[in-house]
Amino acid sequence: MAHPVRGPLSAAVVALVGSLLLAQESGQRFSHSVHIKTVGLSCVQCHTAVDESRSARDINLPTAETCGVCHSAEAGDLRGRASDFSAEVPPRPLLFSHKQHLGISDLVPQIVKALESGSYPEGDPAAIRRQIDSEEVCTACHRGLQETDLGRREHYPLMSDCLACHKPKGNAMAECRTCHVPDFDLLPADHRVTTFFDQHSAEDQGKNLNRCRQCHTPRFNPCSQCH
Asked: In which domain, by residue range, is 13 found?
């Protein structure tokens, strides 16, 4: 599996959020909070293409036609389609299918189980759990959007979310290349510095163990020589 979180995943997340950040930079006015909490819309009512999306390169933003179901042209600026941004979004170093994941009946329970069992290595489990809506499967990976306007990097999944299912003894494939393209460099940046092994001393034993396990599984586990 890829190293979390602030290594190769950070590059993947930058690519994944490109479409929403481009929308923000284009000057479009939008509030997730208003549409989710006030109006009561579900994610797929606006992101209509996501049900059939099989590629991480897909731009699943709502089109002007989708917005026009509720908004008249006179009510606001509905310029542009999501496809207008496609040429500006950089290549995404991931293999991912929304269609496949939306078809998983226990996606939310798997994330919740990881949080409650202590195997989820990122952040405050209780705070994360409060952001997950058992009735809205998208919140398993995209959390906190109901409290904000535009989507940002923090609203996109961490490697920890993937590993709730993608793990050696899990119910999904746990090979790196299941999700990462072959030419993507998986070695985290902090492993490249010459002081890494000097700093990784006896004082570090037992610290951030769940994070290490995201890559250092039983099949590839030099950590076990010391820990």
From this structure: 8-162
Which parts of the chain have pLDDT scores under 70? 1-28, 73-91, 168-171, 190, 193-211, 213-214, 216-227
Residue 186 lies in a domain: no
The H or E element spanning position 112 is: helix 107-117
Q: Count of domains in the chain?
A: 1
In a domain, 172, yes or no: no
Q: Which value, to the nearest 10 degrees, does the dihedral of the CA atoms of residues 215, 216, 219, 220 take? A: 100
Tokens linked to 76: 């606001």
Tell me the per-residue pLDDT of 51-105, one tens digit each, with 9 for 90 and over.
999 998 888 888 888 888 888 755 455 544 444 444 455 667 888 999 999 988 8
Measuring CA to CA, how many Å separate 5 from each of 120, 163, 186?
A: 12, 11, 11
* Neighbouring-strand partners of residue 166: 172
Residue in 186, 187, 161, 188 with CA at minimum distance from that of residue 176 = 186
Place of tokens 């009561």: 40
Backbone angles phi, psi at 166, to 5 degrees: -85, 85
CB distance 166 to 182 below 8 Å: no
CA distances from 129 to 74, 111, 120, 132, 160 (A): 40, 9, 11, 5, 13
The answer to whether residue 67 is domain-embedded is: yes
Q: Is residue 105 part of a domain?
A: yes
Give the 3-state secondary structure of residue 66. Answer: helix
